[in-house]
Amino acid sequence: xxxxxxxxxxxxxxxxxxxxxxxxxxxxxxxxxxxxxxxxxxxxxxxxxxxxxxxxxxxxxxxxxxxxxxxxxxxxxxxxxxxxxxxxxxxxxxxxxxxxxxxxxxxxxxxxxxxxxxxxxxxxxxxxxxxxxxxxxxxxxxxxxxxxxxxxxxxxxxxxxxxxxxxxxxxxxxxxxxxxxxxxxxxxxxxxxxxxxxxxxxxxxxxxxxxxxxxxxxxxxxxxxxxxxxxxxxxxxxxxxxxxxxxxxxxxxxxxxxxxxxxxxxxxxxxxxxxxxxxxxxxxxxxxxxxxxxxxxxxxxxxxxxxxxxxxxxxxxxxxxxxxxxxxxxxxxxxxxxxxxxxxxxxxxxxxxxxxxxxxxxxxxxxxxxxxxxxxxxxxxxxxxxxxxxxxxxxxxxxxxxxxxxxxxxxxxxxxxxxxxxxxxxxxxxxxxxxxxxxxxxxxxxxxxxxxxxxxxxxxxxxxxxxxxxxxxxxxxxxx
Length: 480
Prior knowledge:
By secondary structure, this protein is α+β, with helices and mostly antiparallel strands. The protein contains nine helices and 19 strands. It has helices spanning 3-18, 41-52, 58-75, 91-106, 256-274, 282-288, 291-300, 310-321, 338-347, and strands at residues 129-140, 145-156, 159-169, 186-189, 194-200, 208-214, 223-227, 234-237, 246-251, 360-363, 366-367, 374-384, 387-396, 415-420, 425-435, 440-447, 456-462, 466-473, 475-477.
């Protein structure tokens, strides 16, 4: 990694921006409360790429960007404001403080090189058990009714929990109403011990939850009986076969720059259904702006080879999605990865979403091997309102949330793809997680959604040093 080359590249790019003739003419009239002239996307994106891969420290990047923003603002400073009006009358020192404060707010989050204090799985002693469940527990009384669809049971270092989807409604009007009354559920194990259920939705989408057992049960439970209000007991068999996926582990040797560009491509593909072009092309185009400068910065930092095929593939992806203004100078590549081609084929159909996925849940419990300092455990998959969600646990040194351009979260360092049994690929995007001390509850959203006709999936989790492919059976249930 060439840190000196990274800083030199960014400073030269900043100087080139200040010499840009387009910036010599005064901009359109601006409001007094918005005095700072925005810098180019290329400069900001190059800075973001260098700090993301650790080639440039955030303080140096902030100083360079603050100088540019101050210079641009001072160049276009309007006439002094009238007495009593807060604006440009504060002078250059005030402008610099304003610009620097804005830039410092961008880097107030933890950087990738500073992981959160989390013990590794090798250091964490305790039980480690994952069981697919696939049962529906109904509940009802005079005030509320509904169902819990239990996908999996996990007993890890932080305790025992069920992962479930849920729906509650008013029995008179059938409208959604309140939360499941889990505090009134009776839970008993095979030895007569009783437990409370704690309802937690943090880190999960609104349609799913975790139900933690308190106190912590013994690690060798054979079954649990769960009795909901107004219903008979439902026995959860924990002696069934554990989730043991068919695994294939392949070594990889991706540079930090290639991995970053692949993550950007993943985000582009997930954004297509979120922001369809018939509505607005702006978000996709915004994500593509400045990519050429980012690639140049990564090459200058020697974290991306000039011979790498990834920039050409990214250029081809931009062309396929109609993204212009990206600034990538290498010609588009012809050899796109199979998952990208599958996604593009889906989106380019005339009516790609003519048959939306119906609601349902699948029992899954499968642990993937550790690599790149992380370990994933799949704990259920469900469809809700046309979306597909995969619930997981994550072990390892996972940095805190670091939103990038258009929620490109670089704190989660893996690229996750799912292939259904018809050969179609789906990209998985992290939508949030909850740190419980030693592990995180992480939810992934699949695009496009998965249909209930799928009986088996292949999950591909790829980092810089390795790629894990796990074939997992799905046992679908349905909401009542």
